[in-house]
């Protein structure tokens, strides 16, 4: 029974990782298509580049979520070993660091300053 659960968890994790690859492929393809359309309409390469970077960044964030889910699935059924817990801990730390870095690249601000930034922007546009 335990072996079949581990096998199922392994296949589940592989399926989730495949979903991450599909999300990356679809996200990058969609981002490129939208960037080319925008470039054709506006003839503004710098604005197109900024939008492309944001879309690619969001795609990578979604893929990181999939990969974290796959690692959790693997860890749950791997048995309660120190190695599985350490692996999951490292994945969570790396994912958190990458998410913060990507968010900083996308928005130009720290993720925890989002509400403050939105309020400041809202106040500026009202005046």
Automatic annotation (TrEMBL):
Keywords: Membrane, Transmembrane, Transmembrane helix. InterPro entries: DUF1622. It comes from the Bacteria. The chain crosses the membrane at residues 12-36, 56-77, 83-102. The keyword Nucleus does not apply. PANTHER family: SLL0939 PROTEIN (PTHR38468). This is DUF1622 domain-containing protein. It comes from Lujinxingia vulgaris.
């Amino acid at each position: 029974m335990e072996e079949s659960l581990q096998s199922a968890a392994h296949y589940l994790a592989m399926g989730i990782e495949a979903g991450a690859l599909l999300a990356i492929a679809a996200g990058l393809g969609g981002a490129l298509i939208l960037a080319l359309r925008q470039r054709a309409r506006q003839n503004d390469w710098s604005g197109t580049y900024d939008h492309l970077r944001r879309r690619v960044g969001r795609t990578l964030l979604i893929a990181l979520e999939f990969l974290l889910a796959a690692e959790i699935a693997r860890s749950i059924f791997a048995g309660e070993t120190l190695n599985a817990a350490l692996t999951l801990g490292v994945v969570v730390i790396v994912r958190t660091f990458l998410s913060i870095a990507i968010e900083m690249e996308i928005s130009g601000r720290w993720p925890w300053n989002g509400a403050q930034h939105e309020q400041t922007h809202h106040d500026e546009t009202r005046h």
